[in-house]
Write a structure and sequence with these properties.
The chain is built from 7 helices and 14 strands. By secondary structure, it is an alpha/beta fold. It starts with 5 loop residues before the first strand and ends with a strand.
Amino acid sequence: MSNPHYIGYHFTVIPKEPGAEILLAELSDTPFESFEETKTGISAYVQKKFWKEDILKDIPILHSENFQVSFTSQEIEQINWNKAWESNFEPIEVDSKCRIRAPFHPPATVEFEIVIEPKMSFGTGHHETTFSMIKLLLEEDLKGKTVLDMGSGTAVLAILAEKKGAVSIDAIDTDSWCYENGIENVQRNNCHQIQVLQGDASLLGTKKYDVIIANINRNILLQDISKYAQNLNQNGKLFLSGFYLSDLQDIESVCNENGLFFQKNLEKNNWIAAKFNLTS
């Protein structure tokens, strides 16, 4: 069976951060089905049979005064996504302890090796937020802990949590691609303590966790911090990422209002990952 034909859109976004992230989120609600980050923005691909002339008409950032977005488009006869992805993806190692690789990379001897095939899901470890969250989790004693991974993407953080001894892990993402990919990666890494769910914080109910990981974005975090606090056990720990240094004060303020107090943060290229403790 031949690969389908695609239309490729190549967007230049100024400023790229957070413009490219906003554009990606808005395009995710359209028939575009694959994305890749570029030096100047993102490229997005849609199957020709799903393309329509006004496919970009409901993309707000294209009309925003805060960003300059331009694009070119081209018809691409065939794309072998596996080949394209394999040619661009390299293993990543964090603190010489955790190595994230694809199935086609040879294994290596490290304490925690995670095999991820991300497809369209976020969370290969290459993005600053995932990298920093991994660093924070590597410092944490997770043995016997119950863990929630919100915005789980590839489920890489949930998988690392299980490899570090966590039990009863829930990995939740709103995106159907992430849900399916998360299940695949959990199975690929022979994990048995992780339940992958599709949805948002409304799924949590009254369930309690020792550790909550949320790598999403500033607005969702600000909206859901109070819910996370309700679902943490006393002295529980909350790890947040997906926002910039300039957002840390707002994040910390809302955390404090909910009994969560700042412990530390890591910064990489202006992206922040922060740890908070729930205290009475």
